[in-house]
Amino acid sequence: MSEMAATENAILTGEPVRAGVSIRRLTYADLPSVLAIERRSFPAPWSLAMFVLELSKPSGICLAAETESGLIGYLVCSRYADIWHLMNVAVDAEERRRGVAAGLIEAMRDQAGRDQRCTLEVRISNAGAIRMYERLGFRPAGRRVRYYHDNNEDALIMWLGEPDA
Ligand SMILES: CC(C)(COP(=O)(O)OP(=O)(O)OC[C@H]1O[C@@H](n2cnc3c(N)ncnc32)[C@H](O)[C@@H]1OP(=O)(O)O)[C@@H](O)C(=O)NCCC(=O)NCCS
Question: Whole domain around residue 150: which residue ranges?
Fold first, then answer.
């Protein structure tokens, strides 16, 4: 491991979400476990190619949450110009409501810089996720009509920081 990678890993693993859970960079080797959680978590799951593309972007932040028994959650965030886009976050069903997703998002914000703006889309029906984003400071800022092609559901657009016009 390079000195820089060692330093980044030290930062990411410095603050455990809770005892026994650590957060570190997501790697290609994690993708089989990621896909298993992804397919159980979403009606229209991402493909392997979508994760590979995001992991290949040097400016992105992709994080894993793990316990001794393996991967329990992940987050994928991309940067376009000066704005971060939270593209994907999921936690294995048995590990939910224990602060794992909130810990992943806080770790992402620490790494991006706490003053950075961040946006995301979430299904209008996904009340639990919307509640979580609101608790973390995201605010609703409009809708994308029929954004999700599997059921024509609208997306709620949320922003952390000042929304773009
Ligand atoms: C949404 C998801 C990522 C949340 O992960 P999690 O690790 O359970 O979330 P956390 O434990 O960090 O939740 C933090 C807070 O958010 C809120 N929250 C999270 N899930 C909630 C739910 N299902 N219902 C209501 N509030 C919820 C709560 O306020 C929670 O704090 P509390 O448990 O002390 O009340 C998880 O449910 C999941 O993987 N869902 C399927 C995939 C998905 O919908 N991803 C988001 C796509 S935009």
Answer: 116-165
